[in-house]
Design a protein that fits this description.
three-stranded antiparallel beta sheet, 22% strand, Enolase-like, domain 1, globular, Rossmann fold, alpha/beta, 11 strands, 10 helices
Amino acid sequence: MILQDTIDLLRTKHNDYVESLYISEVRMGVFMTAVKLSDNSYGISSTFPNIQMNCYKKSRDFGDFTPNKITGLKVIDLLECSKQNGITETLKVAVLNAISSKYLENSDYKILRNTDPIDLIDLNSDKTITIVGAFQSYIQKISKTNSRLFVLELNEDAFNEEDKKYFVPASDYSKILPISDIVIITGLTLVNDTLDDLLKAIKPEAQTIVTGPSSSLIPDVLFANNVKIIGAVKITNPELMLKVVSEAGAGYHLFEYCAQKICILK
């Protein structure tokens, strides 16, 4: 699995550092979740869309990694946590991105600043392009070209009326991805644990891109799984980022106020 393999890689290379970290602050907003770690590193993730609190009294959880039981806990305990719910999965991605920010900043990875992955794609090649997730700006750009466009999405209502012709139910990914020349995948798939299956369905020669704030982790494992470009974020104003996330900020708010787009290239 992409996330677990990334955790294993970080522990293999930097275990003492990972084990020394604590969660200092958490902001879980409607669209985004942000964390601050004890070394003053910051990370962000899309908030898992299906977070639900079980109201049955016998099933209520007041243990670690529940409200009021997150800050102050060790990062390693989160990464090894066996609970699988929206809160823990969201936090794991945000924490991995926080840890990764230190190594992305001081690494030999090829990183392009102020760059969106869509700017690195030849959109006039008459190829089949599939987007996983209804990226409105990408749909608008690609739909104006001669490329054949599919958009895999869970919810058809996420589209403007004129763009619904591109909608393909997400469950049909195994039919669409093998015929796609370029695949652009939302980083939310890291959070909801669907990325692994998507990558397995893509033909090896396809140009595969994973993009969004959630995908700001060290790229080694994604590159090993045939991802060519990672669209990530560099947080430029951490304290303002925490405020924006708390006030129902989405990705485009981050780029307006407190972050810049970067691309990590294989």
